[in-house]
Structure formats: C-alpha cells, structure tokens
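Z., the sequence and structure:
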Amino acid sequence: MQQLLAWGVLPVINENDALSSAELRFGDNDTLSALVATAVGAHQLLLLTDVDRLYSSDPRCDVNAQPITDVHHPRDLKQFEAGAGDGGRWGTGGMTTKLAAARIATASGVTVHLADGRDPARLAGLLEGDRGGTVFHPHPEPLGNRRSWLAHVLVPEGELCLDQGACQAILHRGASLLLVGVTAVKGEFEANRPVLLRDPDGQELGRGLCTLNSSQVRQALAVTDGEASPVVVHRDALVLQDR
C-alpha cells in the first residue's frame, strides 16, 4: 500500500471481495478501515455514516438523545460502544461497528472523524481540514502497528493461566511473562502463535505470542528442576486488554 501511494495510486480496499478467502476476513469494512489506517501510519480516519454525529442514544428513537462532539478518553469510548447495543441500525452494522473502528484506530494514535456521508460536500470539507461531527482523539500512548495487529487481528489459538504474581509484574512493572508465572495451559498451538493470558479469576489480562508450543509449556510445568525460568511471552509481543 505504501508503494501504491508513492506511485500516486489510490488503493480501494473492500472486504466484500468474491476472491477473498475466509481467513482474510476481518468482520466488517469499518474494522478493516481502522486496521488499514494503522498499517499505513495514517494521521486521520474518516468514518461516514447516515447520522451527523455520535449521540448518547439512537436519535431516531430517543428525542432526548444528546449530541457528542468529542471523545477523549478510551474509557468513554468503551462506554459508548457498550451502550450502542447489538440491535438495529444503531447496533450491529451501524454505530457499533463505527465505535469499534474508532477504538482500534485511536489506540494506535489515529484521530477519527465521524461524519454524515449523505452530504456530497461533506467529504470535500473533511479533506480540506474540517472536523467531523464527532472527533475521537488518539490515545496518548499509541500501541504501534505490531501490537495493534496482535490486539485486534490475530485469533488466539490457546490460553495461558497466570498466577497473581505474574499478573502484577506484567501490569505494574511492564515485565515479560516467565514460565514460573504460568499455572495452566489450554488448547494446542505451535510456538510463536497468539494466546490469551488469563488472571486467576479467569478474566482476560491480555494477548501475546507464546515462545513455546503448548506441549513444551505442559512439559515444563511438570518439571521443577530449579533452573532459571524461561520467557514464555516477551513484553514486546504482549498487549494488555485494558491499557
């Protein structure tokens, strides 16, 4: 894509391609747009829809719906995403997918504009520097391309259950996951494949690339020889669920 842009060619990327195989599908074009924006290092992502901005609820059904012009904090974005629900045009295939795309893009440092695509002049204004009806501001500490791909694209092939000490080291000291902090392994996977990391309560702590395959982890857990504990998931290949 970078080379096409350098040649002055504008790529048009659409998931609804008859030649696409199942493993290349990302869920919807809103999600795909956020992933592409992250991959090419875009500064801004424009999401066009059939409302002028984000509202506190569906303005088609609720006369008291309040317009929202700016979303600054990832926690607020998650609340709006949860409130969008999964029904009707405000839910699946509607505002929910736009909010999910905004979450992915802003986590990687991309500013997202939500705007009314029914007005032919709106896109021209956005490209000239106007703002959308709602602006989602980027995370102050972007994930980066690799971690964004790990967090939002790769499908976990197994799970590692961690003890409390490992969770604290990962959360508060930015540590890698050592084998000594693993209490159990679920699923079958090869080395350097994505896995879920779960805390002692079974909640998802994050995701990472496991340096060992599932059989090696199980074998190592069964042996207590006092040797130095190997790194199972390096901190550079780990992303937290709620950061």
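Residues 5 and 11 are 8 Å apart (CA to CA). Helices lie at 2-6, 29-39, 74-83, 95-107, 120-127, 145-152, 164-173, 214-221.

Let me know what you think.
H.
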